[in-house]
Amino acid sequence: MKILVTGAAGFIGSHLAERLVAEGHRVTGVDNFDPYYDRRVKEANLRYLRSREEFRFVEADLKDPKAVRALFRERFDRVAHLAGRGGVRRSIEEPLEYLANNLTATANLLEAMRETGHDRLVFASTSSVYGNDSPLPFREDAPANGPISPYSASKKACEALLFTYHHLHGLHAYVLRFFTVYGPRQRPDMAIHKFVRAVDEGRPIERFGDGSTERDYTFVDDIVAGVVRAVERVEGFEVINIGGAETTPLARLIELIETAVGKAARIVERPLPPGDVLRTWADTAKAERLLDFRARVPLEEGLRRFVAWYNEEKTP
């Protein structure tokens, strides 16, 4: 198949593009190198892909309708839409940036697909849409009408827009709600990456809250396996959790990081910021049924793999 991957220079997008190329697909990747973090990190993510003839890269901004239309001069069998601005806390400071990079960009993409007759898309959403009021473990049929950050609100708005295009224009779309993805190439601002670096360098960890908040941590290889299967099978409209199906307290995560790094953490406790949900936990029964998905990498093993990658990257 010919597949368009948006956000292809990012953490998950680059892993996805590599997996699709390895499985024999031809991939066009697009990214705008948003200045949220250092462009050099994303360029490094693309290093292997640029060496493959099955991969073509386009630098373009999905917020620009003309640039998006230009992408669809080429014909694609599927679109994997992973581009977007992540980060709950920063979204509170820059809400308009998140609406533009997530909702406006997605609207431009959907319009270009409609105009050119492209009708199959997989969308990267987030467990953050469940907020603090959904019962645990999170099921896709929960109302999820209480997003508590501009980031999660922008993703929930994208989900609604996708359903509208499904209803009006026959778009086939799978909305995949990712649960706290980690692994090699993880964004430098994300907790596991920040914690590993701080522990390794002997600097204190800022732990927000008392350590009782919980997350369903999902290794990037598991996430990518779910996305690939969704790309292959997308039909109709479905919302599907892609997660590890277990939840880990923050205090326990730090203990596991200490073990993986081989050093003790120095912890500075900070108040829990507004916008942070208290816990996430995926019910993945639907993913198992529709995608034959089940997370394979336990947190301890995933952290070992992340630390091994981190040590390789820091070696001169």
Explain the overall architecture:
By secondary structure, the protein is of the alpha/beta class. It has one domain (2-182, 218-246, 281-296): Rossmann fold. It is built from 11 helices and 13 strands. The protein has helices spanning 11-22, 39-45, 65-71, 88-93, 95-116, 150-169, 191-201, 220-233, 250-261, 285-291, 299-314, and strands at residues 2-6, 26-31, 55-59, 78-81, 120-126, 172-178, 181-182, 205-208, 214-215, 218-219, 237-242, 248-249, 267-270. The chain has a 7-stranded parallel β-sheet, with helices on both faces. A two-stranded parallel sheet has the order 7-10. β5, α6 (150-169) and β6 (172-178) form a beta-alpha-beta unit. α7 (191-201) crosses α9 (250-261). It is globular. The termini are far apart. The model has no long low-confidence stretch (mean pLDDT 96).
Q: Any idea what the radius of gyration is?
A: 19 Å
Helix fraction, binned, reads 40-55%
**Helix and strand string, N-terminal first?**
EHEHEHEHHEHEEHEEEHEEHEHH
CATH fold annotation:
Rossmann fold
Short description:
By secondary structure, the chain is an alpha/beta fold. The protein is built from 11 helices and 13 strands. The termini are far apart.
Write the layout of secondary structure elements.
Layout: E1 2-6, H1 11-22, E2 26-31, H2 39-45, E3 55-59, H3 65-71, E4 78-81, H4 88-93, H5 95-116, E5 120-126, H6 150-169, E6 172-178, E7 181-182, H7 191-201, E8 205-208, E9 214-215, E10 218-219, H8 220-233, E11 237-242, E12 248-249, H9 250-261, E13 267-270, H10 285-291, H11 299-314
Parallel strand pairs: 1-2, 1-4, 2-3, 4-5, 5-6, 6-11, 7-10, 8-13
Antiparallel strand pairs: 9-12
Helix pairs in contact: 1-8, 5-6, 7-9, 7-11, 9-11
